[in-house]
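Table S4 entry, SRPBCC family protein.
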Amino acid sequence: MPSFHFETVWHLDAPLEAVFDALADSLHWPDWWPGLVEVRQLVSGDEQGIGRTQRFVWKSRLGYGLRFDIRITRVYRPRLIEGEACGDVVGIGRWQLQAKQTGTRVRYLWQVRTARPWMGLLAWMARPVVIWNHHAMMREGRTGLSRHLRDRAQLGNGERW
């Protein structure tokens, strides 16, 4: 089956802890990440989140859906969240965060291979389009997270409801 190695870097104008908290709260990602249809808790995990397993359901910009579970394998607050994916894709996802003078640098690594035969066929035939779709959805995630963090900061300051 085809494999993909994606690296995405976001620069967010928000403190490290706030970004980490938003990324760790993946049950609420559908509130701000277009294309993410549902996140459902399957296993709660320990107090750090290790072992937490959630099912993610995505609808791509190309119209196909992806369903996979992520089991959290490592958490180093507030710098790292790593998990193993299984389902329509199999592999590893890793959020790495770094404080910067202007906010937070987020690096996301997504190393997966397709697990369904139809996806393998699509990936071989339309690899550039699949890559474009991934990057477009990640840009939408960055925009949504930035807006979400800005709104939460304004709520915390009493400026907005």
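Residues 28 and 39 are 8 Å apart (CA to CA).
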